[in-house]
Amino acid sequence: MKKAFTLLELMAVVAIIGILLGMVTSAAAGAMKQEREQRANALKTMIKEGVEAYHAQFDEWPGFKPDSLRVDSTASGNITATHEFSVDESAKIIYEVVKETVTQNNPLLDVSTLFVYNKSQYDEKKQRRKEGTKVVRGTMVGSNFMDAAKRKSNMSGRNASKQTHIPVSSMVYGYQDKEDGSFRAFKIIYNFQTDSIEVAGT
Questions:
Q1: Residue 64, domain member (yes or no)
Q2: Does 81 reside within a domain?
């Protein structure tokens, strides 16, 4: 007589397979989070070095003057050691570096590795959060710079409905959240004492 599996044995096999699948899924999710975090840190370093390279070449910071920031700080009566730019202001600073790189063929940073989002859509979702409207995590999906910068005229037919074109002047620069991959913007912080900048996540 052929020996068949008992119900108990089948249940044990299914349980073991479930545990193994859980372990594999957990390991894959952990690796993805680590990869996103490493990429975010690499982008942060690259943008910082690009802005610093601009400063070294032109002896001025792109998109802002420290003296003006200091005057504003003094006038408000709240003198601080640092000035944190908004996401919009930070995007304009980075844009100056990107523009110099692209239009003047001055390789201050590798634009192909930048991660971007449409400024108008970013502002819209930020406003919705302020108004208390729930924004589902993971729905703010960014794009690689090269994909986002493609001209609309290069897309036709079925791809026309999937256009991701963003004018370079309308880009917000950021990274993927390590938990769900949603877009997070970078902010630039200027230090008055050391005349230096840092790039921070939001």
A1: yes
A2: yes
Question: For 59, left (φ over 0), alpha (ψ -120 to 50), or beta?
Answer: left
Number of domains in the chain: 1
Cβ contact 172:87 at 8 Å: yes
pTM, 2 dp? 0.77
Evaluate whether residue 147 is within a structural domain: yes
Average pLDDT, the chain: 85
What size, in residues, is the chain? 202
Structural domain range at position 188: 8-201
C-alpha dist (Å) from residue 97 to 22, 92, 193: 45, 9, 23
Convert the pLDDT of each residue in 149-184 to its tens digit.
886 644 455 544 455 689 999 999 999 999 889 999
Q: Tell whether the model's pLDDT for residue 135 goes beyond 70.
A: no
